[in-house]
Q: What sequence folds into this?
């Protein structure tokens, strides 16, 4: 009997949805596909195009067109929640915004505290 990856690929699913379960210190993501199977570790930098990097608890469309798993696009993207006060402490809001944008991979925060 073929393993799950070969069976999935042989019936024509070149793209499927998976949830990022965790990302380790080497930037390797452990994902679970929409059928509940764990996938081999995938580098979060193995992404089609550019943009936000995969984060835990996000759903992504993944393909295996070239033999390696590739993150294609986020499925059901959720906007980041920015916290802080809009009063006189606008520095807190700006700091939280910069942290969220960096976490998503949109910016590299080089500001000074």
A:
């Amino acid at each position: 009997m073929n393993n799950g990856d070969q069976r999935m690929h042989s019936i024509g699913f070149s793209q499927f949805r998976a949830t990022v379960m965790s990302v380790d210190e080497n930037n390797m993501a452990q994902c679970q596909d929409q059928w509940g199977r764990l996938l081999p570790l995938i580098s979060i930098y193995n992404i089609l195009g550019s943009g936000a990097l995969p984060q835990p608890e996000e759903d992504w469309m993944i393909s295996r067109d070239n033999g390696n798993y590739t993150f294609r696009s986020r499925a059901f993207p959720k906007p980041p929640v920015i916290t802080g006060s809009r009063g006189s402490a606008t520095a807190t809001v700006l700091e939280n915004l910069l942290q969220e944008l960096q976490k998503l991979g949109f910016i590299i925060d080089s500001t000074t505290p």
In short: DSSP finds two helices and five strands in the chain. The first strand starts at residue 15 and ends at 23. The chain has two domains: 4-75, 79-107.
